[in-house]
Records
---
Amino acid sequence: MDMAKVQKHTADPTKIGTEVFFLPVASFNERAGSYTNSGRWIQWMEKAVEPEGDSRSDLWIVDRLYKELRKAYAGSTAAKDRGLLSLAWDYGDDPSFEKVALEINGYTYGLREPIASFAALRADGSTACGNWIYAGYFQGHEKNRAAARDAADPGGVGTYAGWAYSWPVNRRILYNRASADLAGKPWDEKRKVIWWDPQGGAQKAGSWVGNDVPDFAPAKAPGAAAKPGGKALDALAGTDPFIMKPDGRGWLFVPSGLVDGPLPEHYEPFESPVGNVMSPVAFNPVSKVFSGAADAKGAAGDFPVIATTFRLTEHYQGGSETRNRPWLIELQPEMFVEMSPAFAAKRGIVDGDRVQVESARGSVFARALLTERIQPFQVNGTSVDAVALPWHWGFAGLSSGHSANVLTASIGDANTFIQEDKAFLVRVSKAGPQ
Amino acid sequence: MTTQAVLVDTSRCIGCRACMVACKEWNELPAEHVERTLPGSYQNRDDLTSQTWTVVHFAEQASGDDMRWLFAKTQCMHCADAACVSVCPTGAMQKDGTLTYLDETKCIGEGYCVAACPFGAVALDEGKGIVQKCTLCIDRVEHGELPACVKACPADALEFGDRAQMVAVAEARVGTLKGRGLARARTYGVDELGGLGYVYVLQDDPSVYQLPERPSARPVDIPVQARDWVAGAAAFGLGAIPVWWVFRRRTRLASEAAEREGEVR
């Protein structure tokens, strides 16, 4: 899509190769639901306010869409339509987020009793579960563990076991057996996670106990040996904490799993002002590079300045919410580019000037903000200038401005395809008034 | 009688300005137009206005490869010896223990307090015809709630409690900071102007945070109306009356305050 045409409302929908519908969807605080953070906490939230106008929750929209599709396919006997027509779809007329949550949690077929943990799941059709790692998080309205709000942190390591629910089984730290030494005693008395209690367990035969759910066979003593010929956890001794690895050990040498393994290697970014001093290969050869205009590569001769993008406290992501909040715009009102006073002087730029920043992929205009927080990099004995841009702005909103993301390359890292947005090359010049 | 104070520990402040937004949200203050942040800074303004009752000051200190980013929230300091109270001709600005508050029904927007405040914390709202400033969220405090800024602070940089306790915490924190090698760490507001309702832990000199080293009431220009009145009175040989009137009023306010304390006891 050509963003300039979208911006100027000159795009012709009949010339676009697909049909796009925009539906008014409720924002996150206009509906119930849950958030799962990168620490695996599922945090339930209630609806704070009613959606504006005729906008609806995404669940409501998908529910209506499915019901219309089912009507359209009703009466079909084609085998390919069996899946769609046989879907268990029972969320009510005003679809309930809790019913969806219960389905993800899992329940017994027939009675629909919530599953307490994934250990209760059966492969014989007597149980159903949307996602086994979530099993146990939502056992009905009264036992919505994602809504738990006990802020106590007994171990002092930030596990907060009573706050929300951490998948799986509310375990906060994976491989937490490694928090204790070979004998099962915490490495650090001030930061205890789990430990071996020789009198622990229902039979007092010994158990792993503590401030987190053990990520280890609970009754396997530190001195237990691996069972000869044993399978799965039986193949691991009481001193093998990394239970998802075949040998129970942490790996630096990774023979499988990473496409750029088996050992960590240093590569320069896609665009770099210097070569790779660690190896003759400058850039990771298995990084994902899409061969489009958004991946055009600039040379240091044309683009001599290192640039990075960053976030502001006051704005969130693309800013569609925060750049429409007057109280936040008042704090961070406009797009800017940060640079050191020394670099600015070289370009004849003074604080507040309108500045053009160009990469091989695009160009933005922003106000210069001069600060000692930005300093040149000393790379291989050379001083390379640097600038930094927040990336929250866009062409629409109460506060609009150029988006720094038109400068970045849309390449992905080798294993997860996460964009490499944080290091790229630009040139910077003073621009005339708008 | 209000006995509490806010502790502002600048060593814990992360400059997020949630306090500024919370203040506007609770007090229903509109956003003001800000064209750009201050030169070289994220600070969005350097003055307090009738619609912005608190501002976080940003200071950057660079020396060699070391960089320090210092933040301090400023607002009405709720001085014990409050210049705004002394100069108010109508008794609208008053003290109640640690709190300096405005009786809006008595305020006539004369603005002596605006000129006298050593912190620039009182501002005239021309639309309403009265002055405005931080209320210490007394409408929340009276119902057992924290001031909005304190409630919103995610870094525990703001605390609210009995002033004597806040002073003790501030002094202990300064000791800790000095122990970490911050030789210039100090309290602010413990004794200034008889003691402020906002007690600070600073990591550097007050001037770094744009706070006056030795705050004192600023000289007030006698406004035109008052000057005319004095001139007129003098013409009738009554020149001594204004001085006598101010002294009488201050004595009366002091005795009223003493009576209120007596009632509480």
Note: The radius of gyration of chain A is 28 Å.
---
Amino acid sequence: MVSKAILFSYTNYPQLTANLQEAGVKMGKDGMLRHGSFTFDLQGISRAASHQIVRHRIASFSQQSQRYVRVTRSYGYLKPPGIPEDLKVPVEIQGHRLELNFTDVMDLTRQAEEGLAVKGIKAEDARYLRPNAATTNIVMSMSPRQLIHFFNLRCAPDAQWEIRDLAWSMYASVRLAAPQVFGPLPAASESDYIKKRVAIVDDLVRKGEDGFSMTPPGELFRLELHPMLELVHPVETFVRHY
Amino acid sequence: MRVRLVGYEPDLERVCAAAMRSCYSPHPGYELFTHTSQDKVLDGEKIFDAERIGGLLKRALELGHYDILEHNSITWLAEADEKEILFLMESSKFFETSQIDERRWLITTNLRVLVELAHSANQLPLTKELVATLNEAAPIIASALVISNPKS
């Protein structure tokens, strides 16, 4: 399953700045960081990643319910690329020895959850079988100041690969959508890894600017990160053009 | 004017309604947000028109499901004293303020905070003026709360 990060609502800084100038107010970049909001639709991310994301405060989240969305319609999973498809592990169930790979286990848990639902078990109970790899959709909003904190932590080389990929995708999105407030990450001064990748994002955003500005209002522009910005897993990155 | 609305995201009520519906739908928030015509089929979903958005937002207000109203920001330039600003900052973690000069402040919060202020018995003239701007930024919510502009 391919994850997507869609920046679909955000503060229109050129308009905000123009309105302030009309009132005789000039705000610097740092001042503007407090005033605004960026809303992403993160699609097809694992529950393992969403658990990490919702730890960030101050932010706002609306996440797909496992109680109200039927398992058969929503179930997907994200296999960590570090686990080979053909890697099997021995398990023993009721005296039967089996060799299962990651996909087999995902299939088993899905079948078991569906089976419980068929036998009349409430979705809110059947979902306890769902693994961390199960995918979810979440709408999240953060102010620019909080986003910079998020990026500093989650773009770091020691961050977990899935949330790190998402964080870089989101960082590239906001650089394209709001260059008035987002620049190089503060953490770049302490990490060569971050510094190199910020430079790659600079380049990708510069290359994407023309296409973004020509995107019809209300439509999505796809920002191509791969292969220049190496990600562990594919994250399709989109920004809505105003 | 003591309070001047200077910024808010376009379609912010549609964003909030899509966020709300995404909690209960197999379809993600952006797909719902853009489900505005019959051209696109989203299994089990009604068209995301003004009536649908209004219905979802009114339901959120009835249920007290205010967290979906946080997916936005609204910014004002306001004349206020420090006591009034302190009142705002104490009332919600979502208030952000920057002092422009001795009297003027840039204030940012979200729709949830405005709705809570509108319901609050403990209001200052400043908060009433902020709430009154809901008519422009979020007309569906404003009409549901029967907010009227004190100057109109």
Note: Chain A touches chain B through 40 residues (CB under 8 Å).
